[in-house]
Amino acid sequence: MPVNTLKDHKSEQRIVSIRVWLALVFILLLAMVLVSRLFYLQVIKYDELSTRSEENRILVQTVPPVRGLIYDRNGNLLATNRSSKTLSIVRERVDDMDQLLSDIGNLVPLSDNEQTRFKKQVRRRRPFEAVPLKFKLNDEQVALISVNQFRLPGVEVNAELVREYTEGSSFAHSVGYVGRINDRELKKLDPALYSGTYTIGKIGLERFYEKLLLGKPGYQEVEVNVRGRVSRVLKRVDPVPGQDLHLYIDTGLQDAAIKAMDGRRGSVAVLDPKTGGVMAMVSNPAFDPNLFVTGIAYSTFDDLNTDIERPLYNRATLGEYPPASTVKPVVALGLLSSGTVKAEDKIFDKGWFQLPGSEHKFRNWKRGGDGWINLDKAIYRSNDTYFYNFAGKYGIDRMHDFLSEFGYGRKTGIDIYEERSGLLPSTEWKRGAYGQPWYPGETIIAIIGQGYMLATPMQMAEAVTLVANRGKHVQPRLVREDLPDVQRPQWGEDIELKEVDWDAVIKSMENVVSHKRGTAHWRIGRNLPYRMAGKTGTAQVVSIAQGEDYDAEKLKEFQRDHSLFVAFAPIEDPQIALSVIVENDKGAANVAREIMDYYLIPKLKENAEKEGK
């Protein structure tokens, strides 16, 4: 081998040897780094990393409580909880939320409302808390999600309890409904108490008794796999279910009242005179509360909210109407008890009344008048002129003070928040509201329940219940139990009047129905199998000029008079008291008769059978 060739070969061998040694050194150094890193992680950082690992493997999940049920007086369910399949997402397990929502939308329909609500909820949820995206999945949708689960990270389909109102619109305004928690409500809520709960009572009993119906959440520690799926439950503390409510409401009576209203706008409030229990409360038209439970579409809510007939408005406790002639029995009691009149005092009615020095005529509803008239006839004929004559002597402030004892001008304190106080005018009120004095002509209008005076149907029902009970006060209430930690306004005292005064007014109210010239006799008084005391009323919506006759045909529908009726029965042992308002139409007395027949006739038959035995 040539010398040069040999030298080159040896040189190459040295280079290879150096490279081998360098590689060995690099491998050794790398191994040392790995060993040291392993030592650091396994020994030095063991406690910290093992804790983190356990936290990643074990999660604490909130177990929401079961919301309390709501029953009527006969044990019929009005608000219950139904199992529903819900699609939820855990944000921490999602890399691209927009893409995930798009993928889900290709499998099951997602509305803009659902996505908007979900994105709002995600921003305020707890870490690793599943946020619902879509409720009430059907079997086909559940199957589609299941077979595509591998490409839907963070997605869960679980069975949850969703509120359901079995009677639909019938109790929308009394029972109310639950809806999604909004940002304003969230700021006021205890986050621990509402963890895992996404709805809250919005109106009615659902709102008033929210704390009791909600219950208290529990929790469970669960072990999850790498996909975040629960593999087993390690520990569980059960939630405390919400308290059930039992109402005075009678579903059959409620249905009878709705049927009697026959789709007309208005309200019915029915009370048990012995307890104050609300046996029926109708506001017509109504709405389906189930629409709100999992989130109502904006377009649907807008339609309800802008509907000219106002289905969302609870007329029974929020509607403020002139009580009109339904207030006359209470005014008559005030006239008698104050000594302003005696039951036998008479005036001559020419069909109108004038204040001294005034040319204005305050007209009776019957143009020709009723001739000689006393208190009894003034009530059963609903004569305005009789009350006009004593208005000035009685005075607005004395009338204000007396009517307030019967509940006018204040809330009844019924156990829902949606209630107004109406308006009971006085000289002080007008001075404060308008900076003006009270005029004598305004007393004349007020004494027949017109002018400034306003009352809710529930107030009118409370007032006639006080007459039925001869002054014994019972406060309207929906829930039968005396529940702890419930702040409900309590007011109203018994009214002590002479028995002879109660007798006179109640007898006159009976004549409204039973006397052949009574204002309700020909409509509901004939063949009446029980003794009813009642009072008709007609509330003006628009003013009619002097000298003109009221003609409903010439007026637009919403300008026509309201029809009112208050009553109780049987007179000798009152078991039902009510108020009825039919807006812009006639027939309130007929509605009352149908309701009372439904409730009382079966009881009369039952009593007759017992006596026969």
Notes on the protein architecture:
The chain has 613 residues and is of the alpha+beta class. The protein has two domains: 59-246, Penicillin-binding protein 2a (Domain 2) (Alpha-Beta Complex); 251-612, 3-Layer(aba) Sandwich (Beta-lactamase), CATH 3.40.710. The protein contains 21 helices and 19 strands. It has helices spanning 3-44, 46-57, 97-105, 112-123, 139-147, 183-188, 204-208, 210-214, 251-261, 298-306, 315-318, 328-337, 375-380, 384-394, 396-405, 427-434, 440-446, 457-468, 499-514, 521-525, 588-612, and strands at residues 58-63, 70-71, 77-89, 131-134, 155-165, 177-180, 199-203, 218-224, 230-237, 245-246, 266-271, 278-284, 347-349, 352-353, 362-363, 371-373, 533-539, 562-569, 576-582. The strands form six sheets. Strands 2, 3, 4, 5 and 10 form a five-stranded mixed sheet that branches. A five-stranded antiparallel sheet has the order 12-11-19-18-17, with helices on both faces. β18 and β19 form a beta hairpin.
